[in-house]
Amino acid sequence: MLQRAVDRGTKSSVIGILVNFGLALTKCISGLAGHSFALVADGLESGADVLSGLVVLFGLKLAIKPPDADHPYGHGKAEPIAAIFLGVSLLGAAGTIIYESLHQIFTRHPLPKPYTLVVLAGVLIIKELMFRYVGHVGDSIASTAVRSDAWHHRSDAITSAFAFCGISIALVGGPGWEAADDWAALCAALVIIYNALKQTKPALWELTDSTPEDPNVEARVRAISASQTGVIGLDKCHARKMGLSYYVDLHIVVNGKLSVREGHQIAHTVETKVLNALPQVSEVLVHVEPEEELAIERATKNQQ
Asked: Which residues are 252's β-sheet partners?
């Protein structure tokens, strides 16, 4: 299950790298020859996306490495770290575009060539299709890094859309409207910054072991556990995302008169049922609470 998810994420990343490499060359060459900085800026972002795709590949491969002496909980945190790197690279690309846009606005330069619009129209279609494909893969395997990679494609599509509008305005306006192309690149950079911050937040939450975005994981663990024979109730249930999988800490309540062996058997049954029903859960730590002691503990807390 986990390996299949990584394979799907790897495939989407490789396709994205190849597409971005081809588009980066096309846009930079066309932009330089066609006097369009917005198109060059678009090409620079595609070039950054090639590096980002390589980071996603590395993060996915590292995230599924089994636990070792230095990482007893596995290497799953590599996946959100890769997502944060992608967000930072987007911010870097946006910063470069802003700097160059402001420089170009106050520098006289020729009008963009009309054929740059044809290039941008093709890029816009390709990038939107890539966003939908990679985004679908990221959602299906619950990968923060792959989702962030998808938003790289969407950001590129947004940049292309702004560039298309800017070049169109410059061409229609004629001499004196050359800066419309550069203003378009500047506006696109602001949108890229927004998307970068939006995609970095979930990765930061995951690194700090916050509650998973998907509430169904905890809800299903509770439902499965509560239905097992011998489980009187549930005290606590905490889930945290570790790469492409989840780790669960669960407190079940049982009859306090049961033997240690009987309590252990119930806990083992709960663990097995949860792991079998939820392939995305890698580990379940079950703590057994005797009913009587739990009642005393709660009464003490209420008195305090």
From this structure: 234, 288
Q: What is the amino acid identity at position 54?
A: L
Q: By C-alpha distance, which of 278, 285, 130 is closest to 214?
A: 278
Question: pTM to 2 decimals?
Answer: 0.65
Please give the domain boundaries of the chain with CATH numbers for all domains.
Answer: 2-207 (1.20.1510.10), 216-303 (3.30.70.1350)
The residues that bridge with 239 in the sheet, in sequence order, are: 248
Instruction: Output the DSSP codes for 50-62.
Output: HHHHHHHHHHHHH
Rounded Cα–Cα distance for residues 210 and 189 (Å): 30
Q: What is the DSSP letter of 65?
A: S
Cβ atoms within 10 Å of 274's Cβ, excluding its own: 22
| 243 Ramachandran zone, left/alpha/beta (phi>0; psi -120 to 50) | left
CA-closest candidate to residue 91, choices 17, 195, 203: 195
User: What is the pLDDT, as a whole number, of residue 299?
Assistant: 46
Residue 152 or residue 16, greater confidence: 16
DSSP string, 74-133: -STTHHHHHHHHHHHHHHHHHHHHHHHHHHHHTS--PPPPTHHHHHHHHHHHHHHHHHHH
Q: Residue 174: left if φ>0, alpha if ψ -120 to 50, beta else—which one?
A: left
Q: Report the b/e string of 202-231 with b at 16+ CB within 10 A.
A: bbebbbeeeebeeeebbebbbebbeebebb
pLDDT tens per residue, range 189-226: 887 788 788 778 878 887 877 777 777 888 899 999 99
- Give bridge partners of residue 114 from the DSSP assignment: none
Are the C-beta atoms of residues 158 and 131 closer than 8 Å to each other? no
Q: How far apart are CA 94 and CA 159, in angstroms?
A: 10
Tokens of 61: 């491969």
- Are 274 and 281 in contact by the 8 Å Cβ rule? The answer is yes
